[in-house]
Structures are given as structure tokens and as C-alpha cells.
Amino acid sequence: MTEVPDTKDFTVEDGYLSFILPFAYRKKQIRKAADALEKDGFHFFTLEDPGGRINDLYEGSTEISQEELDQYFLPYVERKIFPPTIEEYGFHRFYKIIGEEFTLTADGERYPFRFMSLDVTLGPFGIGFLTSRVRLLDKNLPLSSVLNFMQHFRAIENKLKEEQGSVIYCGDGKRFSSIHEFLVDRLASAIRPFIFHDERLTGYFGSLPYFEDERMFVTSFLFAEPGTEFSEEQLFRIGRVDGLSPDGKPFISASNMAYIRDYLDNYLHDRWAPDLYTLATDFSYTNVTTKSPEEMQRPLAHFMGTHYYNFLLHYFYRIMLLRVSFEYSRLKWDKDEEYLKRLIELITIFSSWYYFKHVSVRQEGRELGLLFRKAFNLDDLFQEVRTTLDELYRTQENAAANRMNLLLFFLTVFTVISGIYGMNLVIEDWKNDTSLNEISKYGLFEWTALLTAVLGIGMSIYLFFTYLGRIVWRKLKRRLDDLNF
């Protein structure tokens, strides 16, 4: 990372931060997982949400309109992201109010923060999301400190040198050097037994081996000091979550202004500039404004409500498209016929049921959706998946054609032999009990007829039981396999 001496901070008076951790769970156990979450104090969210506390997720900072959630998305999308019951397909969201204070130490600095609420969303195809909503207790912090906290908190395992050394201290004296342990062991222990780890990838930490790295996605709504003029370098740092260098100075991960401008052209949404800027990159989604929270009630409600679902849906698209590429790379063409069929089924159902280019009826929602599509590179990933699907279909057709050709070959041989012999295929000795001595005296005619009859009957029995066994084995394998499709 290249230090830029003239990079200056602006003051962040307040901010709302969310960290999203994707994970895999066993979708066959979704009912048990839901029961465990509800027993642990989580509340299942629906559009009606009777007795719910959805507006307390950010501790009453603004009112999230459930009617607006209902009208924001296209009807066929709404049914998927707001299922009324756990039994229906879609994104099943469970939320819990936490309201505890903790302290994170990193790079010689202390960051007291309040953990407001926690979401566990059990999505389709065994993909889940853990959303942590926090708020820094210290106000009027420099931008570098806020970004540094975000960078350390999103690193669920401190493996890189610049991420090591961070510790979370709890009010009861406990401490955690791993963000993952802090979230899963202390705050979301109910979901831990249901998190699925792929044991075939030894040495990999986490439950999504097809995901890029071991960092959470971060979303934020930052309130800058009134009158602040955002520079291109500052907006770039916000998009990249560039906080402090090891010696405690502001840093930026680029020094070429042409590169910075190209980056902002791709990921910056400035419809409401200069009062509000929106950045959506491959690992952060940030709104930064110079207005006060009282003046930004509606944009803040959108950030917490409609825009959160808009982001979550596109984030799910990215994970699923990466998953298909990963599963395709594990395919063993000469052995995994059933795996191939399941992969075709996975791609087809995902494409037809969930993958939509437009998800919102609002112009702002569509613009934000396009921004997410560009940030997550969804169009290129989807084109790769379409190519994968074509290859899978071609392979399946070739395998089916080879089996059919082999079957036709044997049937043709028996048909030709039977046609040549005609009615004479029946041997007089077969009408009565035939001893081995009589069979040993057969000539070429009788031996050909006998072998044709025996092999024909045997092949018919074999084909019948093979077909029946394949059906039984396929259903049994679907119940027992760990593909989590």
C-alpha cells in the first residue's frame, strides 16, 4: 500500500455500521435451525411481523416502513425475500436485539462500540448471512479511525500481518482475539451447530470455500461534519476501506489519480451529490453525507430497509455464481453422473427462481441494483455460468447418446439373429426336461439358439433391475449426500 502524505481526514460525527458474514448451513435442517434461533430469542421477520421490533434494530434511530418494503420490490421478487413462513422458499430472516457495549483494540487504539442487533438470514440453497449492526460510541472521529475499525472488525480471522493484534473486550471480562469466535460463540451460538463445513477442503477456514477471502462485507452510513467537501482520494479510501498504516498514519491503496478516478467512475453513485455520495464496491457499500441525521431520516430508513434487501439479494447472486463455478471445478466427468445432473438442476433453479436483472419498481432501486451488479461483476459471472450449463448439457447428451448406441447395438444383434432363425429358434428338446448330456450334443444351430435365448432373457432382466436400482439409488443418494443443493 502506498502512503499519500497529503491525504487528509474529515471528521465523522456519527455512523451506522453493518458487517455481513456469509456462511453455509444444511438446508435439510432449516426447521431445526429456525427452532433453535427462536429459542435463543431471535424473532422471525415477515411483512406483517406482529409484535415485532424491526425498528429497534438500529435502536429507534429511524422508522423502517414495512409498507415501503412491500411496494419497493417487484412481485415475483417480493415472494422470495419476504416468505410468510419458514416452510416456503426464500430468505428467512431472524433478528435479535443485543444492546451490549464492547471495546475493540487495534494498532494501539481503542474503539468502544455498541452492538445493536444481529440478523441470521437462512437463504436458498443452504446459503446464510450473519448481519452484525454496530455503532461507535466515540463521536467526532477522524475518517481513518472509523475505516480502521471497519477494516479490523471485518477480518473474521486475523491471518494477515496488518490485521493481527486486534482484541475484543467484553463487559464481563471475557476477551476474543477472533471476530468469528466473538460472533458465533457469544452472540449467535444457536446457529453454530448448523453451519456446514466442507471437510474435503482441509486447511480452509470458514464454510464457503468458493468465496474470495475470510472478511465480512461492510455496509455503513456515515455522517460527516457539516460543510465537508469530499475529495476523490477520500471517497476512494471509503470504497476500499483504507484506514491506518502500521505506523498510525492515513493510507490509501493507490497513488495514481487516473486510476482513482476510473475507480470512482465505476463504483460511485453521485445522484444526490454533494450532500450524499453512495459507493458500492466488491466488499463495501457506504453512504456518506454532510447532512444531519434529522435531515437524512428517509435515506437512512432506505439504507436500513429497502436498500439492505437490495444489497443482500445481489450479494447472494455473487455467492451463488461463484458457487456454481466452484462446484463445476470439482466435477469428475467419468464418475459423477448424478453430481452432473444435480449441478444442472442447481443452475436451472437458481436462474429461473432467483436471478433477476431488475428487482425494484423504483428508479433509485434500479440504479442501486445496477451499481451492485457492476461492483460484484455479476454479468460476467452469469455468462460464465451459462457457458458452464451449456457444457453440462452437452456432456449429459453425449453420455446418454453413448448409452443408447450401446443398447441399440446389443438389441440389433439379438434382433438380427432372431430374425434369421425365425420360428426355428425354438428347439424341440426345450419342450421337455433337458439334461446336460443332451445339451453337450448340440450342434452350431442349437448352441446359437440357446445362447441367443439365454443372453436375451438375461439382458432383459439386467436392464430392468439396473433401471429400477438407478431410480432407488438416486433417491437414496439425494437423502444421504452432503452436496447441500
From TrEMBL:
Please give the superkingdom of this protein's source: Bacteria
The record lists the membrane-crossing segments as 300-319, 406-427, 447-469
Per UniProt, which keywords does this protein have?
A: Membrane, Transmembrane, Transmembrane helix
What is this protein's record name? Uncharacterized protein
The organism is Bhargavaea beijingensis
